Each structure stands twice: as structure tokens, then as C-alpha cells.
Amino acid sequence: MSYGQGGPAWVPGGSNTPDWDALAADAERRRGRRRLTPIGGSAGAAPAISTVVALAIVNQSDDERADASDGPSATLPDPSDLPSGSDDAEPSFEETTLPPLPQPREFISDADKDLAPFEPGTFWAGDTMEIDGRTYTEAATDGATDCAQGTSADLGAVLADHGCTGLVRATYTADGVAVTVGVAQFPSEEDAAAAREEAGGAGMYLLALTGGDAPVFCQLGGCRTTSNQVGRYAYFTLAGNSDGTPDSGDGTPAQQAARDGNDHAFASIIQRGEAQASASASAIVEERRRNEDG
After folding, report:
1. 65 and 171, same structural domain?
2. Sheet architecture: strand order including 128-131
3. Quick one: pLDDT at residue 257?
4. Which stretches of the chain drop beneath a pLDDT of 50?
5. How far is residue 150's CA from residue 162's CA, in Å, rounded to a whole number?
6. At a CB cut-off of 8 Å and minimum separation 6, what does 191 contact?
7. Domain enclosing residue 109, as ranges
8. Is the same domain home to 274 and 155?
9. Rg (CA), the chain
10. What is the pLDDT of residue 28?
11. CA distance linking residue 202 with residue 31, whole number of Å
12. What is the crossing angle of helices 189-198 and 153-161, to 10°?
């Protein structure tokens, strides 16, 4: 009968009394081996268990990353699928621009636009004429729709032939001289230019406007004259000595007065155009503002 592998044996023919001490020691050794085996097995299993746990953790992390790819970020398109930039990326707005502002020349050249009153009180602004530091005082003004009333017969005929619709005059005085400035209005720029071209001959001159504060001058000849044109207006001057004596020579005050009157007439015509152009521009801006507010 075996009591365990490698243990002492009781055999027939030996002593009938077993060696109880040896058997007990042997049994104790066997129990010790049985206790050590589970402990040893547990100790050997610890690395394996930790390895399994580590693998489980790694696998779980991989699973979590895999699951994360199914989250909100997974719904974002791939960069390659995004549309490329274009020139239309900037917000676009309807372009709004004001029409070109009217120019003064348009008004003094076009009878359909040049609608301001053509009268002495409105055309001759102020009671002085100032040119390059020289000051003249306004002495008399008048106006007429019959252009021949303020001109010589020959000039009146030319103005009438080209359709003159009105003539305004003003006389200015300074330093012993007097000058009458006259501006004639025509239906078109072409009419005014043609009248100016014909008005350069002998006998074509403006009549001196006298009376009131204006002296009698240019009754004995020796007066200085000019003629010019801009837009649909032709303008003329007549200048002489305030005491009525004839003027002669170069660089005289009367000669300068005629030139200054010419410049004053031109400036007054341009001012007329500027005033109407400014009013028209203001009306355009105001209309645009009303349309935008509406």
C-alpha cells in the first residue's frame, strides 16, 4: 500500500508495528507540498493576471478611441471634401452710386437747364465790382427783353438776328472812369458764338447806361470796348472817362476798366451756372436720400 510517491513503505516480513513518527513526518511533508502548490500557482499566475489586465486596459483604450471616432467629430467632413476658396467668398452688396454731378457749363450752355431768372437784380450780385484789388461802385442797372434797346443799331440788329432773348446792363464807377457791362442771352451756345463773331465790326458797341449815380460818358467818342462769349451768353463793355472826355493811349484807367468789366461779366455768368449746378446736385442727393429712407 502506498502512502504517497517516494514515501516509506510497510512491507510484509518486516516489523508489524508501523513507524508512526516517520509516517506522521511524511504526511506533514505532503500537506506542506499541497499548501505550497496553490501558493506557488497563485504567485506564478500574478504576472499572467497583470498581463491580462494590462492587455484589457490597452484594448479598452483602443476601443474607446474607436468609439470616439463615432462621436461628434466623426460627423465632420474630411478636409479634402471641403470646398476650396473662391473669389465670391467676400460678401457682395448692390453697388449704389450717384449720377455724375452737373457742371456749371451745362447750365449756361443749355436753355432747358438754364432756368434761373435773367434779371439785373439777380444777375448782378452785390453793389461793387472787384477785380485784382480794384474796386468799382455799382451806379445803375437795367434789363430788357428787346436787346436793341441797350445797343447801337448795328449791334442790336446782329443780336436780334441770332435770337437774343434778353440784355442786362450795369454801370460801375471808380477813380474818374465809368464802365457799362452788358450781357446778352441767346437760345443756344451756337447762337451766342455767331453773334459774338459778327459783333467785332465797326459800329458794334454797347450803349452807355447813364442816369442816377452813373455819369454821362462816352458821348464824344474815345471809349474802350470789349466783346466776348461763353455758353449761350455774349458779353460787352464800354468804358470811358467819367467827365466825358475822350480817352486815348495804352494803359489808361478807362482801358483797364473795360477789361475789368469783361472779367466781371464772365465771372457773373459762371456764378450763374455754379448756383444752378449746386441746386441741382442738392436735389439729386435729397432724392436719393428719400428713396433710401422709403
Report:
1. no
2. 128-131, 134-144, 166-174, 177-185, 233-241, 224-230
3. 98
4. 1-17, 34-69, 71-73, 93
5. 16
6. 162, 163, 232
7. 105-290
8. yes
9. 60
10. 59
11. 159
12. 150
Handedness of CA 127, 131, 133, 135 (dihedral sign): negative
pLDDT at residue number 108:
97
Q: Is 2 helix (H, G, I), strand (E, B) or coil?
A: coil
Contact 257, 136 (CB under 8 A): yes
3-class SS of residue 147: helix
Instruction: State the Cα–Cα distance between residues 164 and 229, nearest whole angstrom.
Output: 13
CB contact at 8 A, 247 and 220: no
pLDDT of residue 291: 63
Grid coordinates given for 103: 457742371
| Same-domain check for residues 175 and 258 | yes
**Domain annotation covers residue 96:** no
Q: Do 176 and 64 fall within a single domain?
A: no
pLDDT digits (tens, 9 = 90+) for 96-114: 566 677 788 999 999 999 9
- Please state, in angstroms and as integers, the Cα–Cα distance from residue 67 to each residue in 54, 59, 70, following that order: 19, 12, 5
pTM of the model: 0.65
Evaluate whether 108 touches 273 at the Cβ level (below 8 Å).
yes
Q: How many domains does the chain have?
A: 2
> Beta strand pairing status for 134-144 and 166-174?
antiparallel
